Every structure is written in C-alpha cells, then in structure tokens.
C-alpha cells in the first residue's frame, strides 16, 4: 500500500509537468518582447558559464528560439512561464576531464532577459532542475 502511495505521487507530478495552460492562463498570457536567436544564445552561454563545471569545454547545440510556454514541475510551484523558449543540448567535461554526453537545457526569456533556466540532473536521469530564476 505504501508503494502505491509513492507511485500515485510520482504519477501526479508527471501529469502536472505535462499539463497545458488553462484557457484562463492563455487569455492572460504575456509573452513579452521577442529576442533574436543570436542575443538569446549569448545570454544562455553566460548562464552556462556560471553553472557548468568546465564551461570552456562545453559543446553547445542550440535549437531555434520560439514563442511558447513552459510549466514548472509541481515541486517548483507548477507555474506556467510564458515567453520565448531556447533549448540547447550541452556536452561538457566532468571533474575527471571526460565528456558527460549531451544533456538538455531550456531557457525562458521574457522581455529579452532570461527569467528561468532548467537543466537535466545528469546522464540517465529524467528530472530537470532549475538552474536560474529571476
């Protein structure tokens, strides 16, 4: 029975991450002003410089920026962040000097500034953690 309770909590937390914004949230949505791909990449690199173990070794593959939203994990409040979304795959060296493999990072921009950034916990994990919040 105890395992069933844990399973239910995990399932509910996953459902919360995948929920689309409500009609009310969409009606009130403010995406802010657009940001160029080049400017967004410069700002994302600045955050990565602060959080990566070996930022100079980072190999970064940015995706095209787009207008959208990201719902935070329920454990982070479940808030919907509207703005411009920049996704990246980042491969960097660990403390032993070995590349870890590409991991996903997501940056949310509002009025040209990063308001949230998320990264994967590590190879083989499915959870994301908040790197940065303004």
Radius of gyration: 16 Å
What's the domain count? 1
Give the helix tally.
Answer: 3
Multimerization state = single chain
- SS strand fraction: 25-35%
Order of helices and strands: HHHEEEEEE
Q: Outline the biggest β-sheet.
A: 6 strands, antiparallel
Overall structural class, as computed from helix and strand content, comes to alpha+beta
Large-scale geometry: globular
Q: How would you state the average pLDDT, rounded?
A: 80
| Residue runs with pLDDT of under 50 for 5 or more positions | 4-17
Helical residue percent band? 25-40%
Count of distinct strands: 6
Distance between the first and last residues' Cα = 41 Å
Describe this structure in words.
With 134 residues, the protein is an alpha+beta fold. It has one domain (2-133). Helices cover 28% and strands 33% of the residues. The chain has helices at residues 2-18, 23-27, 37-51, and strands spanning 59-62, 66-71, 80-91, 103-110, 113-120, 128-133. Strands 1, 2, 3, 4, 5 and 6 form a 6-stranded antiparallel beta sheet that branches.
């Amino acid at each position: 029975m105890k395992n069933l309770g844990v399973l239910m909590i995990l399932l509910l937390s996953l459902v919360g991450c995948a929920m689309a914004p409500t009609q009310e949230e969409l009606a009130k949505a403010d995406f802010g002003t657009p940001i160029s791909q080049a400017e967004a990449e410069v700002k994302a690199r600045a955050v990565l410089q602060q959080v990566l173990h070996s930022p100079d070794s980072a190999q970064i593959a940015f995706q095209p920026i787009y207008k959208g939203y990201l719902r935070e994990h329920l454990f982070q409040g479940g808030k919907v962040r509207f703005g411009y979304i920049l996704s990246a795959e980042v491969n960097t060296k660990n403390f032993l000097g070995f590349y870890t493999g590409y991991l996903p990072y997501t940056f949310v921009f509002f009025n040209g500034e990063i308001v949230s950034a998320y990264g994967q916990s590590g190879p083989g994990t499915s959870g994301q953690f908040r790197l940065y919040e303004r």
